[in-house]
From TrEMBL:
Record family assignment: Belongs to the glycosyl hydrolase 10 (cellulase F) family.
Assigned keywords, A-Z: Carbohydrate metabolism, Glycosidase, Hydrolase, Polysaccharide degradation, Secreted, Signal, Xylan degradation
UniProt subcellular location: Secreted
GH10 domain location: 40-342
Catalysed transformations (reactions): Endohydrolysis of (1->4)-beta-D-xylosidic linkages in xylans
Gene3D superfamilies, A to Z: Glycosidases (3.20.20.80)
SMART domains in the record: Glyco_10 (SM00633)
Protein's name in the database: Beta-xylanase
Entry EC no(s): 3.2.1.8
Top-level taxonomic group: Eukaryota
Pfam families (alphabetical): Glyco_hydro_10
UniProt pathway: Glycan degradation; xylan degradation
Signal peptide range: 1-17
């Protein structure tokens, strides 16, 4: 029997609903949002910050995790060989630490936003010299953030659309050994952190998703630790992958014994938006988050910032944008409610329910002890 209040609650839009709270109820570890340091935003010609933005990011009911959008990348952390700078990355890490947010750390070895001294036509790398450079970078950056990351994106975007390896200085000099070296080094530096391979367009079955399976198997066959696959989830509102495609792909990665997370979810649309494109967007968000809640291996969802003016999309795809969950005036997209709905309605698997119960019991026990 449903009482009148239950019926009313079911009819009301989830205006006060909060993403991380519902994510945990649905058995996930977190619902997170990436964020940039104010200096980075200013450099991009944006306002550095807004009180309202800062309050939402720090509201643990809304977000339980964050990722620095830029500050931990090679360009910033080792701009010159052997010269390390953690200023930008540390800004986001301190927010995470102060507000008890999980931090997904991003990204150690990536062909883009790479320091020019590495990707330099005149640098005459040999397998030996470039290997030393990778080891030095991974070791120093991970050492600096030791104990502060739940996971590291160790290698980012190594694949082309056809599933073969992307051309990069790392691949040219070392072949697929650069992936092995990065993971092997990461595992040595901090054995307790989750090590991820992260990429885009790997959320539905395709030659590229098969490439991911190949990478995971390659590492496993060599006895090298890999813990997770990050699905970036940069989608287009008019043609996102379906719920079933996403569940099938997550299950395929999960079958290899690794966990999965959506690491950079956003759903772009043509701007200005209209009712139809907002509805498509809501459906795309519902399906992505729904797939994560329903497929056993998926442990969490991170959106790539949460406030439209701070999104990367309009810079890269002129005429497209409004990809996140908060509009410029801080009102929420219809997709916000769709995400909550996906988490509320999910039929949570028995395994996730067990995890949930265990977490609740531990929380109750630690509350008793306090
Ligand atoms: O959001 C990031 C943006 O500020 C940078 O200019 C851009 C440079 O490539 O990188 C963006 O983040 C990327 C992420 O690190 C990896 N996956 C794709 C993301 C969007 O480009």
């Amino acid at each position: 029997m449903h009482g009148p209040l239950t019926v009313l609650a079911a009819l009301l839009p989830f205006t006060s609903a909060q993403l991380n709270t519902y994510a945990k109820k649905a058995g996930l570890k977190y619902f997170g949002a990436a964020t940039d340091s104010p200096g980075q935003r200013e450099r991009a010609g944006l306002e550095a910050s807004y009180n309202q933005y800062d309050a939402i990011l720090r509201d643990g009911n809304e977000f339980g995790s964050t990722t620095p959008t830029n500050g931990q990348k090679w360009l910033f952390t080792e701009p010159e060989q052997g010269v390390f700078n953690f200023t930008e990355g540390d800004i986001v890490t301190s927010i995470a630490q102060e507000h008890g947010l999980i931090q997904r750390c991003h990204a150690l070895v990536w062909h883009s936003q790479l320091a020019p001294w590495v990707d330099n036509a005149t640098a005459d790398w040999t397998p030996e010299t470039l290997s030393a450079v990778i080891v030095e970078h991974v070791a120093n950056v991970m050492e600096h953030y030791r104990g502060k990351c739940y996971a590291w994106d160790v290698v980012n975007e190594a694949l082309d659309e056809d599933g073969s390896y992307r051309d990069s200085v790392f691949y040219r000099v070392l072949g697929e050994d650069f992936i092995k070296l990065a993971f092997r080094t990461a595992a040595k530096v901090e054995p307790g952190v989750k090590l991820y391979y992260n990429d885009y367009n790997i959320e539905k079955p395709s030659p590229k998703s098969e490439g991911v399976v190949r990478i995971v198997r390659m590492l496993q066959e060599d006895g090298i630790k890999i813990d997770g696959v990050g699905l970036q989830g940069h989608f287009v509102a008019s043609r996102p992958p379906t719920l079933d495609e996403q569940i099938a792909t997550i299950n395929a990665y999960g079958a290899l014994g690794v966990e999965v997370a959506y690491t950079e979810l956003d759903v772009r649309q043509t701007t200005p938006v209209n009712e139809t494109s907002l509805e498509w967007q809501a459906n795309a968000y519902r399906d992505a988050v729904g797939a994560c809640v329903q497929a056993e291996a998926c442990i969490g969802v991170t959106i790539w910032d949460f406030y439209d003016p701070f999104s990367w999309v309009p810079y890269t795809f002129p005429g497209e944008g409004a990809a996140l969950l908060w509009f410029e005036d801080f009102s929420k997209h219809p997709a916000y409610d769709a995400v909550i709905e996906a988490m509320r309605n999910a039929t949570v698997s028995p395994c996730k329910r067990r995890q949930q119960r265990r977490r609740a019991q531990m929380a109750a026990r630690s509350a008793e002890l306090q």
